[in-house]
Amino acid sequence: CTGNGICKCRVCECFPNFTGSACDCSLDTTPCMASNGQICNGRGTCECGTCNCTDPKFQGPTCEMCQTCLGVCAEHKDCVQCRAFDKGEKKETCSQECMHFNMTRVDSRDKLPQPGQPDPLSHCKEKDVDDCWFYFTYSVNSNGEANVHVVE
């Protein structure tokens, strides 16, 4: 019974939180918990303590990896551009579409937040509408608030 139950008359009687003919299926969903607090990132089911991703784009132990999805940088580029520099594709709709993050301006790239902080952090280098590079970081804190630091 894989150490998770007692064999009685050649049948496994499983301890709590285990099931299956050999008690080899854990009912504990902790390993399936994604960083957003959802089971399998809301894109799969937790079976025997392992995520079975139902959305084929997503994979990984908690269905959080997506090779074909836009990255954090590309996803927020237009909003950072309009909020920081008042230009880009979302310039006209900036106040409606782009107020979902707190923004802080810094005067150089070495003033951007660095890896090693408790919040997940993405360093971004994107081209603006004038074909110039601009730099920003995107992070989400434990309260779910998005924070952007952008180089002026």
UniProtKB/TrEMBL annotation:
Keywords: Disulfide bond, EGF-like domain, Glycoprotein, Membrane, Repeat, Signal, Transmembrane, Transmembrane helix. InterPro entries: EGF_extracell, Integrin_bsu, Integrin_bsu_tail, Integrin_bsu_tail_dom_sf, Integrin_I-EGF_CS. GO terms for molecular function: C-X3-C chemokine binding; collagen binding involved in cell-matrix adhesion; fibronectin binding; integrin binding; laminin binding; protein kinase binding. It holds the Pfam family Integrin_B_tail. Signal peptide: none annotated. GO terms for biological process: cell adhesion mediated by integrin; cell migration; cell-cell adhesion; integrin-mediated signaling pathway. One of its GO terms (cellular component) is synapse. Coiled coil: none annotated. SMART domains: Integrin_B_tail. Residues 73-152 form the Integrin beta subunit tail domain. PROSITE patterns: I_EGF_1 (PS00243), I_EGF_2 (PS52047). PANTHER family: INTEGRIN BETA SUBUNIT, INTEGRIN BETA-1. This is ITB1 protein. The gene is Itgb1_1.
